[in-house]
Amino acid sequence: MTDLKMYQYENELYNQGLKYIAGVDEAGRGPLAGPVVAAAVILKKDAKLKYVNDSKQLTEKQRDLALIEIKENALAIGIGISSVDEIDRINIYRAAREAMLSAIYQLKIRPDFLLIDAMPMEIDIPFKSMIKGDTLSVSIAAASIVAKTTRDAYMIEMDKVFPQYNFKQHKGYGTKEHLEAIKTYGITPIHRKTFKPIKDMLKEII
């Protein structure tokens, strides 16, 4: 069962008379390949969730169960994606923030308040940015799960396009196996060219 402490911030906001609270988080800042994906989730006020927790603490199977639960208990879900080209053009921090803003604007209900995982925003909606927010707020945890499962699904699709890289296993993170595949087969269009060690490899080619 989701820890009752994770409802604390939402309950305080409900008690102030606010109705629609969106949790916002992103997945995929660290990998060497693939986009960064953000999600915004407005849960029903009385939602009591069983599987939802910080996505990094859940197994893949638990995340899939949590995703079903979130979809059943959400009033609105928004997803924003920043492509590899965008990451290379404006940097990963700004690309993650753009994806988060996009996810918020995709919501079919305008939130009264945003609970955001560790990212200050320039937006005309009141918000609270929280370090490790996905461990403190059920709404942010829900957003982290939607973002992570969406990104993982994309990387599993990319595994079919570039099977020799085994993206379905490491999801683009810089594992030993992934680094070996880059050395053997080179980089793909979904690799981030501004990230080390890919950046260094490109310099060697030039």
Average the pLDDT over all residues and give the rounded result. Answer: 95
Low-confidence stretches: none
General shape: elongated
Radius of gyration: 18 Å
Provide the domain count.
Answer: 1
Spell out the helices and strands N to C.
HEEHEHHEEHHHH
Secondary structure class reads alpha/beta
- Classify the beta-strand content into a percent band: 15-25%
The CATH C-level name is Alpha Beta
Number of strands: 5
Largest sheet: 5 strands, mixed
Name the strands of the widest sheet in spatial order.
Answer: 3-2-1-4-5
Helical coverage, percent range: 40-55%
* CATH architecture identity: 2-Layer Sandwich
Number of helices: 8
CATH fold topology = Nucleotidyltransferase, domain 5
Oligomer: single chain
Span from first to last CA?
Answer: 54 Å
CATH superfamily name?
Answer: Ribonuclease H-like superfamily/Ribonuclease H
